[in-house]
Amino acid sequence: MFRYPNGKVYQPKEQEVKKKRQQQHPSFTYSNRGMSLEDDLNETNQYYLAHQIAVIHKKPTPVQIVNVDYPRRSAAVIREAYFKQSSTTDYNGIYKGKYIDFEAKETKNKTSFPLQNFHNHQIDHMKSVIRQGGICFVILSAFQQFYFLEAEPLFTFWDRKENGGRKSISSDEINKYAHVIPQGYQARIDYLKIIDKLYF
Amino acid sequence: MFRYPNGKVYQPKEQEVKKKRQQQHPSFTYSNRGMSLEDDLNETNQYYLAHQIAVIHKKPTPVQIVNVDYPRRSAAVIREAYFKQSSTTDYNGIYKGKYIDFEAKETKNKTSFPLQNFHNHQIDHMKSVIRQGGICFVILSAFQQFYFLEAEPLFTFWDRKENGGRKSISSDEINKYAHVIPQGYQARIDYLKIIDKLYF
Fold first, then answer.
1. Nearest residue, CB atoms, A94 vs list B59, B87, B99
2. What CATH number matches the domain at B35-59+86-199, 3.40.1350.10, 3.40.50.2300, 1.20.1250.20, 3.30.1390.20?
């Protein structure tokens, strides 16, 4: 054991980081910490952007604005507005010249991922993106992991539900068809690693 | 002149459409009619989407939500929110496998297009998109036309301003460096025609 002159125990950076991650992610669920799946993805995308790796952003939440106050010329205050359902996925952008499009969802369910997390028009949007030759997928936060599930197998599970089959994807199916996303310190949910493996 | 049995004068569809367009667009400005540049682009993009030509959407207006009321479980009402400045352009999507990214702006100015219509972070975003190999441009509604100006010449004009030069693009420069977008009935601002010419 090595100590600094001030008596503090020396720990190499890497270990410090890992320890911190473990403290932050005791079970990789979002319930007990300040960060959300959206926060982690935004930080990941900011890292990609700052290092000129990719340009991928979350779209703003769609809001129907009904009433706006102008107390001063400079500051408009929205006084009445409503959440609208999005007709697309939440994230899109470009990576190595390719169009990237995805949705991120989480479940606390321990044995399956409920398909009610998705909406019909989102699935339609994903199908349109695939037809145009884009890279389209979903990021699932489930079973203490982040999963990368391509749009095509998702369509299969969706169609099964639409035809009266089960309303969720079982954890076995996810482990078979989805890819576990490596977690990093800077690129927290490093999904481009999976895209590199699958498309480049 | 040909008349229907009910006495109405026959007009071929094409002419009817043209006449209607001329009534709607007496001088191609938005001041005297209900439609905005955004409306025309949304209709154009809806046409592209419905005909599986491209998947391009306007991003929602970014809003900072401060206070939400829940009078009933089903209906959340946003009671205090503020407009935020976007860190990207307003429109993006995919066409023939290529990532498409653009901003749309208009001016009533008759001799030049003011660069104050753009923000530094939008220009930064466009530069990032170009670095990733995307198709990036602006649509300018000016001088009774719609113009397609690629990001690269826009950067040149922007840098000229940043270096103390003129704060606008002259109409001569626009006519030299930008492409006039053909107007149609269904694809009102048919900018993919220009993309076809320049990139495919």
1. B99
2. 3.40.1350.10
